[in-house]
Amino acid sequence: KRKEKEMRILMVGLDNSGKTTIVLKINGEDTSVISPTLGFNIKTITYQKYTLNIWDVGGQRTIRSYWRNYFEQTDGLVWVVDSSDLRRLDDCKMELDNLLKEERLSGASLLILANKQDLKGALTPDEIAKVLNLENMDKTRHWKIVGCSAYTGEGLLEGFDWLVQDIA
Ligand code: GDP
């Protein structure tokens, strides 16, 4: 058991997947006016009895190589997928695979959020799991995939509840 109830959570995923909107939604803030993440936002929120330090790292191609600067002492990883962006799923898989090779992230619990489930044409979490080949994940990794919508809030609590319990 951890002594302190602070957790460091890194949110990553391609740009436009919904990272910023998800953080706002779980924190009960207005999600109608946001701009794409450049660089990163660090947000400290209280979730249940935990303090979550959420690092929302921008996903645009030119800054993806900087993600690794934020890996130290990461307890949890949230990988956000735009389930409606079929064109970029290969790119998404490649970036996730690369991230999971990182030694410093090997102990981090992994929550995959199949976001934008409110959109027609969004792939289901099962379909996303197949494309990302999650069944073949390293056996030591704790992971879960949950469908969600940052707009309606559906799935977010289920996902974050699992993550904080898994880390705690
Ligand atoms: P980020 O670049 O990963 O931080 O993504 P943003 O949070 O900036 O979201 C990118 C775009 O997707 C914005 O226009 C959001 O309003 C939109 N968006 C985010 N989450 C959802 C969702 O669950 N459903 C829908 N329909 N749009 C979403």
Question: What would the keywords be for this entry?
Answer:
Arl2; 168 residues; 6-stranded mixed sheet; GTP-binding; ADP-ribosylation factor-like protein 2; 4 helices; lipoprotein; GTP binding; binds guanosine-5'-diphosphate; alpha/beta
Describe this structure as you would to a colleague.
Helix content is 23%, strand content 26%. With 168 residues, the protein is an alpha/beta fold. Strands 2-3-1-4-5-6 form a six-stranded mixed sheet, sandwiched between helices. It is globular and about 40 Å long. The termini are close together. The model has no long low-confidence stretch (mean pLDDT 87). It binds guanosine-5'-diphosphate. Guanosine-5'-diphosphate binds next to helix 1. This is ADP-ribosylation factor-like protein 2.
Secondary structure: elements and pairs:
Blueprint: E1 6-13, H1 19-26, E2 40-47, E3 50-57, E4 76-82, H2 89-100, E5 109-115, H3 125-131, E6 143-147, H4 156-167
